[in-house]
Design a protein that fits this description.
Elements (H helix, E strand, L loop, with lengths): L1 H12 L5 E10 L11 E2 L1 E15 L3 E6 L6 E4 L13 H10 L8 E8 L9 H17 L7 H14 L6 H8 L4 E6 L4 E6 L5 E7 L7 H19 L13 H7 L6 H25 L3 H17 L6 H12 L3 E7 L6 E7 L3 H16 L4 E5 L6 E2 L1
Parallel strand pairs: 4-6
Antiparallel strand pairs: 1-3, 1-13, 2-7, 3-6, 4-5, 7-8, 9-11, 9-12, 10-11
The protein binds alpha-D-galactopyranose.
Length: 383
């Protein structure tokens, strides 16, 4: 891949890049809509991702080019930037804007991006491109950011420059992922543990529903607000910084304070899902994959009934998996509203699974899903 991209850079700019980087996408194994509620999540990096080749120029401009999008853009070097439209280059531009608040970049740059994460599929293509840019600038100019500051900076870009109130999970996972490992991340303290992700006789299948995601950002922000409402009502009786400070038992003692039944459902999901992550981490550690799989199904059910972020496409995939004897667990991953599901699929059954799931899905949804067998890959790196 690297050699191919260097050639593309040469074609686009007429000379070779001086630095090359890779940042992955991620799947979340369990712990959904938990990060902005300060609980535990368990993501891992995948081998799909974003490549970034770059070189300095003498023209005092930043040039954004991509092999995925026709839009190319050039910005003069200046001390701040604002979002312009909804084009892809806003993500790395936001990173420049954030870094320029505290650091100077005095050289123009020619940039070329390429990504193979399906866009809008819930595998964190936006976190991947943000972290790729931040990691690259930190590395290239020796800006002195600590590793943990890179995902925090990228999340700030997503919140403030792009306008999505996401938590830290995606940016953290793509910065810190390790091959064949999962991350158990406490999103309140941003402390993490790297754990073995030994799936034994199973592989991790990713099923992209290929549902065009409409309104996903506004619905996401709506869920964040509903959780804030629950938190502030609970705070009438107890002092909490976030919902995940309560386990299910303690939550039951105070949940009467939440007046709106929909908000109560959202908070119930959060508290129980957070408890599930602890159980899932234990099961994974003990090699108890069938318990892990059951927790995945329970997570999906709760995201369907209480959090209402699944939709017919994701439910169809998970329903199929539940009845397919060679899958022991499946759930949606990421924000939902379309996007991807993951499944623990018995090794050797990949073809059979793809064929049967495709028939089942097309029958009910009208177009096919895309199915990948995913490797668990490494976080942001120089290549
Ligand atoms: C998106 C957000 C994350 C997280 C997930 C849901 O991927 O970017 O911060 O909230 O949804 O778990």
């Amino acid at each position: 891949m690297k050699a191919e991209l260097i050639n593309k850079f040469l074609e686009k700019y007429g000379y070779e890049p001086t630095a090359n980087y890779f940042t992955p996408g991620r799947v979340n194994l369990i712990g959904e809509h938990i990060d902005y509620n300060g609980g535990l999540v368990m993501p891992c990096a995948v081998t799909l991702g974003t490549w970034l080749c770059m070189a300095p120029n003498n023209d005092n401009v930043i040039r954004f080019k991509s092999l995925n999008f026709p839009e190319e853009q050039e910005f003069p070097l200046q001390s701040s930037y604002t979002k312009t439209g909804s084009e892809w280059f806003n993500y790395p531009l936001g990173v420049f804007n954030e870094i320029l608040k505290t650091h100077q970049i005095t050289t123009g740059l020619d940039l070329l991006f390429y990504g193979n994460i399906p866009i809008g599929s819930g595998l964190s293509s936006s976190a991947s491109i943000e972290v790729a840019m931040a990691f690259a600038l930190n590395n290239y100019f020796n800006l002195g950011y600590e590793k943990i500051e890179i995902p925090l900076l990228a999340q700030k870009v997503e919140n403030e420059f792009i306008g999505v109130n996401c938590g830290i999970m995606d940016q953290f996972a793509v910065a810190f992922g390790e091959t064949n490992k999962a991350i158990v991340l406490n999103c309140d303290t941003v402390k993490h543990k790297i754990v073995d992700c030994n799936l034994g006789n199973y592989s991790l299948a990713i099923v992209n529903t290929n549902k065009p995601r409409k309104l996903a950002e506004s619905k996401y922000n709506e869920r964040v607000e509903e959780c804030q409402t629950a938190l502030s009502q609970l705070n009438d009786e107890i002092k909490l910084n976030n919902l995940c400070e309560l386990n299910a038992e303690k939550f039951a003692l105070h949940s009467h304070l939440i007046t709106d039944p929909i908000v109560l459902n959202r908070a119930t999901h959060v508290v129980k899902e957070n408890d599930r992550v602890g159980l899932a981490a234990k099961a994974l550690n003990e090699g108890d994959l069938s318990t892990f799989g059951r927790l995945m199904y329970a997570s999906h059910q709760s995201l369907k009934d209480l959090y209402e972020v699944t939709g017919i496409e994701l439910d169809t995939v998970v329903d199929f998996c539940a009845d397919y004897e060679h899958v022991i667990g499946a759930r949606m991953t990421g924000a939902g509203f379309g996007g991807c599901a993951i499944a623990l699929l018995e090794k050797g059954k990949e073809e059979d699974f793809a064929k049967k799931l495709t028939d089942y899905y097309v029958d009910r949804i009208g177009y096919p899903a895309s199915i990948y067998i995913s490797e668990i890959g490494n976080g942001a790196s120089v290549i």
